[in-house]
Amino acid sequence: MLLTLTIGFDGVEIHGAHGYFIDQFLKDQVNDRTDKYGGSLENRYRFALEVVEAVVNEIGADRVGIKLSPFGGYLESGDSNPEALGLYMVESLNRYGILYCHAIEPGREKDVDIKERPQSLVPMRKAFKGTFIVGGGYNREDGNKALAENRADLVAYGHHFLANPDLPKRFELNALNNEDAQFTSPRRLRTDEIPQIVDEFRLAAKNAIEAGFDGVEIQGAHGYIVDQFLKDQVNDRTDRDGGSLENRCRFALEVVEALANEIGIRLSPFTDSYESGDSNPEALGLHMAESLNKYGILYCHVVEPRMKTVGELHETPQSCPH
Ligand SMILES: Cc1cc2nc3c(=O)[nH]c(=O)nc-3n(C[C@H](O)[C@H](O)[C@H](O)COP(=O)(O)O)c2cc1C
After folding, report:
1. 3-state class of 289 per DSSP?
2. DSSP letter assigned to residue 309
3. Of 89, 212, 220, 222, which has fewest CB within 10 angstroms of its CB?
4. Comparing C-alpha atoms, which of 28, 48, 52, 50 is closest to residue 40?
5. pLDDT tens-digit profile of 71-113?
6. pTM for the model
7. Residues enclosing ligand 1, CB less than 6 A?
8. In angstroms, rounded to a whole number, what is the distance separating the alpha carbons of residues 182 and 59?
């Protein structure tokens, strides 16, 4: 945690929600331990509170928040009494004086409309002495209402931000229409949109270096956006970014060029995650490796052909072409 602050972050949010490690201790439907970390509420909370205490002692309570989802059941992490669980947690957290508690609305996973949720975060809000953030399924109107009714100090937004990077401005202008608010299906980028995406890679890398990272690895593997350009089984473009090897590698190399020297790139020519396979992975890998030489980047990180699908090993005659 100290390292996190050393590289420039303002603070840390401990992830105690959504079925991750800490949540697995908290919830009685998944914690079946019989030692001092299982059974009673107090025992199930021991681990979370030990983490909170350790982090607070390291970086100070005013830099620590926690995210909780007592009502959630992600990854089978449900609880038979989420009201008691949430309340117990915030009351225990008060001892440490942490900056904020960020709680996920009940029913979020099932997309139940906020107005129709029988359960509520209000008892947790009333019991917690620090800043209380709510999140999960909020739109502009619901968020303003939560603040006006003093059900929260702040509202967190997730998917609206993905569809609207200028969300605060849109909220200010009340310019978020319903269409924008939905997840849009993935679509082929228009050719004229591509330079902006390349520039966003550049900006993200610049931010990372300014925040203290030593370098940046471009994710060009495993079916993510760069890989989707590279592979002929998923890139069906007919413009300057589709078709020939040279065209399919153009986007990746533009990103590399925009980021300049202190970077590496990760490639997985042989894998087919998210349907991103290629009919000639040897040629693809080789073309990328040769093209990368002219940029003098730090390194190239290549995923083994035997790892065809992430997490699975396969016998294969192929090898990395470098
Ligand atoms: C595309 C997407 C991916 C997410 N991935 C994770 C994740 O990996 N782990 C996690 O705890 N929450 C994840 N979240 C949940 C967000 O952190 C946040 O709690 C949630 O989006 C807030 O609800 P809202 O999207 O309705 O505003 C994700 C949300 C979205 C939209």
Report:
1. helix
2. B
3. 212
4. 28
5. 998 888 899 999 999 999 999 999 999 999 999 999 776 666 6
6. 0.67
7. 17-18, 104, 135-138, 156-160, 162
8. 38
